[in-house]
Design the sequence.
């Protein structure tokens, strides 16, 4: 009996240590691409991970699965989206940055921002969010996971993506770049829908790997990152 009591005491002690050392991870999906990705793996994540969906489009946001949802640009765009214009996405994020920051855990350790580059909300909003997190939550690691547009999407989206990517690189500790064209070339021969699903699964795997590295529930806990 004494041995059993000691064992339970040790187990509770280990659980307390794990909870104390487990990283608080927040995943923020910005814009249509970011919202779609967090919806896809919303129910697969460890308990220490919180998902936050951010968008200028109220209809898309309503259909997104996330722990919290934040509509940005409520007064300037009135829930109708950023029309693919990064400046409008930037303006919307700046307008409602306080609401987005309040959605983050108070002592968050890692923030993973997800966005598609080339459109409006994600391209304009992600750099603003990462910059503000750097200023106000200095101890948090900032990881950006971005997707570049395909060639078929046109030169304007490509230019927008390149500009937004440069901004994102400047304000993030780590940036993971997914090039749609490379994945599409490998999978297009099979089927276009299959190609798109392959791209999404690749992005999901990269984000889930980042989460596992920081989680005592699924991985080894903190990872030393040379920044």
Sequence:
């Amino acid at each position: 009996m004494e041995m059993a009591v000691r064992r339970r005491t040790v187990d509770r002690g280990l659980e307390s240590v794990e909870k104390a050392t487990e990283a608080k991870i927040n995943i923020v999906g910005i814009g249509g691409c970011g919202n779609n990705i967090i919806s896809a793996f919303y129910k697969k994540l460890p308990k220490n991970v919180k998902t936050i969906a951010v968008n200028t489009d109220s209809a898309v946001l309503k259909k997104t699965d996330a722990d919290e949802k934040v509509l940005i640009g409520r007064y300037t765009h009135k829930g109708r989206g950023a029309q693919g214009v990064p400046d409008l996405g930037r303006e919307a994020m700046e307008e409602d940055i306080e609401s987005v920051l309040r959605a983050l855990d108070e002592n968050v350790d890692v923030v993973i921002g997800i966005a598609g580059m080339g459109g409006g909300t994600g391209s304009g909003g992600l750099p603003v969010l990462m910059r503000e997190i750097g200023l106000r939550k200095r101890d948090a690691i900032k990881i950006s996971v971005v997707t570049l547009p395909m060639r078929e999407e046109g030169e304007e989206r490509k230019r927008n993506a390149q500009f937004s990517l440069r901004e994102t690189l400047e304000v993030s500790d780590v940036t993971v770049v997914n090039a749609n064209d490379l994945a599409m070339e490998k999978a297009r021969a099979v089927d276009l829908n299959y190609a798109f699903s392959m791209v999404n699964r690749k992005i999901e795997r990269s984000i889930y790997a980042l989460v596992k590295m920081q989680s005592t529930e699924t991985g080894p806990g903190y990872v030393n990152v040379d920044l």
